[in-house]
Amino acid sequence: MSTVKSHLTHIFRKLAVSNRTSMLNKLRNEVVFFFNKAILIL
Questions:
Q1: For residue 36, what pLDDT is reported?
Q2: Where are the beta strands (DSSP E) in 1-42?
Q3: Residue 13: which residues within 8 A CB-CB, separation 6 or more?
Q4: Please, what is the Cα angle at 10 between 3 and 21, to 5 degrees?
Q5: CA 13, 14, 19 angle in degrees (round to 5)?
Q6: How many domains does the structure of the chain reveal?
Q7: What's residue 41's pLDDT?
Q8: What is the tally of helices (H) and strands (E) in the chain?
Q9: What are the pLDDT tens digits along the chain (42 aa)?
């Protein structure tokens, strides 16, 4: 039982990390896009 629990915990941790990185990448892309638009307007 403990091995199954640790296995699930590991998977969830991995998912959380990948979700966080993808979220950060998305945010960074949006910020870059916004700045590019602002520069074009200026």
A1: 92
A2: none
A3: none
A4: 175
A5: 100
A6: 1
A7: 85
A8: 1, 0
A9: 689 999 989 999 998 888 899 999 999 999 999 999 999 987
Closest CA to 17 of 5, 9, 28: 9
Task: Name the token pair of 41.
Answer: 């307007």
Token pair in block for residue 39: 């520069």
How many C-alpha atoms does 4 have within 13 Å on its Cβ side?
1
Which token pair is 25? 């990448």
Specify the length of the chain in residues. Answer: 42
User: Model's pTM, two decimal places?
Assistant: 0.56
